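Lab manual, section 2.4: Encoding a predicted structure.

Procedure: take the sequence of the chain (86 residues), apply the prediction step described in section 2.3, and record the output as structure tokens. A sample record is shown.
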Amino acid sequence: MKNLLRLIVVLAVLLGIAALTNPSPDEHRAAIRKAVAERSPLAGLLGIGALSAFVSSYHSLGIASYTVVNQKTVTIGAYKMVFVVQ
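Recorded output:
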């Protein structure tokens, strides 16, 4: 019984931290701009990353989030970290 209660408390704390540190839309957009500029300096110079970031749609799951461009998931984020999928 004690172990079950500890497990529940630990899971609740982890979910609470995840909810509080869920990346914002701006953090996802910054990751997109940075990834495009790193992959192609010319595209970064032309602002292609900013355009992609602008047209992305942000979706929050409460404890994690993701962005979609042209029906493809581009970024996934949790715990203030954002990962570019493509």
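Check your result against the sample. The two ends are 45 Å apart (CA to CA).
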